[in-house]
Amino acid sequence: MLELKNISKRVEGDLHIDDVSLRLEKGSLNVLLGPTLSGKTSLMRIMAGLDQPTNGAVYIDGVDVTGVPVQKRNVAMVYQQFINYPALSVYENIASPLRIAGKDRETIDREVKRVAQLLRLEPYLDRKPLNLSGGQQQRTALARAIVKNADLVLLDEPLANLDYKLREELREELPKIFSESGAIFVYATTEPTEALLLGGNTATLSEGRITQYDETVDVYRAPRDLVTAQTFSDPPLNVLQMAKKGDVFELSKGITVRVPDDLREMADTNYTVGFRPHHLSPEPIPGHSVALDVRVRVTELTGSESFVHIFYEEEPAKQITWVMLTHGIHDFDVDQKIQVYLDTRTLMVFDLDGRVMSGSSSQIEADIGQEQQMVSGGEHGSH
Amino acid sequence: MIRTRWFVTIFYILFLMLPIYGLVTMSFKTTNEILGGFSFWPQEFTLDSYIKIFTDSTWYSGYINSITYVLMNTFISVLFALPAAYAFSRYRFLGDKHLFFWLLTNRMAPPAVFALPFLQLYSAMGLFDTHIAVALAHCLFNVPLAVWILEGFMSGVPKEIDETAYIDGYSFPRFFTRIFMPMIASGIGVTAFFCFMFSWVELLLAKTLTSVAAKPIAAVMTRTASTSGYELGLLAAAGVLTIIPGAIVIWFVRNYIAKGFALGRV
Fold first, then answer.
1. Is the distance from CB of A223 to CB of A212 less than 8 angstroms?
2. Domain termination site, one of A206, A226, A246
3. What is the CATH number of the domain that holds A212?
4. Minimal Cα–Cα distance from B167 to chain A, Å?
């Protein structure tokens, strides 16, 4: 079990990690989800022992290991860049942690062969890493992490530099490979879909703070605040200001949306409402949608679906941009005026400080299904 | 067009090679022939000059002395520059950039500035006329150069390699010698080459700090030329032999020098 207690990290005056506390159980898969510069790597480096936190302490199985150098901890780490020892063969690369640990030759040979088979590196064992393809190089780095049998395995966007097909393949294999070892597995990514596909637990990071840590599906379904919802949404979460008046939310243009039953008791004031891109639709959903007038900014087609970027006039002369994700090809012209339909069953309501008032409910299963379909339908090149 | 290009190239090479050709032919001539008039090749081909150099200990010991202190200096420079360059490339510390630049400014001062203080210092330490004295004196110029070149090569190695090695369990010395040095082997080669060449051709400090026991070949050449008249043939042969070590070293590092230039550090 790995426990972070009130970890802060300050580098030259900038706060990179802001009071993070986290408990990761043995044998668990944990995703650190956050945009670039949100502190994923900094946090991983502290977990590994490569960096020391400015404040706070790191415990492994209840023992304070804050000052213990990385050599003395049993961790493994894989970077986004393909990091191998270029002067050593693939075999020696994989064998290196075992050699340092002073294992005998037969054990080393057996382990290297086993892991090489697992990651399909057998034909390349005699080659130098730089003579391999990117995927093979990263598999070599992963093999080195696996062979070590570490208690804590840190993967820092390990698939980000790989092409799409390889990424899919490895993403599927990785959790299986590591789950057998019983290690704590931490996986950093910027992509919400990757977090959903990996499953396990997710901690969303924003500006050095962990905004929520829970089972991945729960974080996606019931974000605790607006920042979490925004972090866990790709394309970006659409937001809209609404004023509650009794049983309805009033949009600026006199359009009203029924307030979900469990939120009737909320005070009558302004709220921020978030909804995901696939909750906008070019066709009405009978009984559950409101029509909104929008102007098309640009349409991106990915084959099986369309990303329609639209302007919505929230107040006169104040335009906000949304993204609508819809199946099939919808090739709208730039500046074309269209009507889109907002699914009112799945609204996430936040107060003006960003705290959630409700979780969007019913559509979880459908949502996840859709996210996964999105991934298999071709990585959308939209962002 | 192509013809012009070839012409220019060939002309340029000829122009560069002409003095060396002159030196080589001269080394096979007798002094009388050299003084007698100009000729493109030796009229009386002779190996006497070379035989004299290889049999007379005042001559060949000059080569041995030079090679000794040059190798000592190259070894010391690279040995000390490696950790320094690693520090500059990997760590941020107070005044690191200034210190790095200051190292370079050491190369801007002419050696003559240091000749006298060094002479006094080394005499006081009892190091006068020893190989190590010259080797140490040349460090003043070669260590900064070596740090500068090596830092460029080291910064080309991602820091994540270091960290991966530590995570794998490597201690620093083991990582440095097993993983890191092989990665910058070409850089070390280029650095050693430049230290070697500088120390090999430097005359002023080498001459000032030695008298008999560690006298460098260049000093031997100047003195011999002035004793029994001008022995130009002998001098030319000595000159040819002086070029050879440099040529050999260049042959070894020829493939890496371009990389050093690409890094902007050579």
1. yes
2. A226
3. 3.40.50.300
4. 6
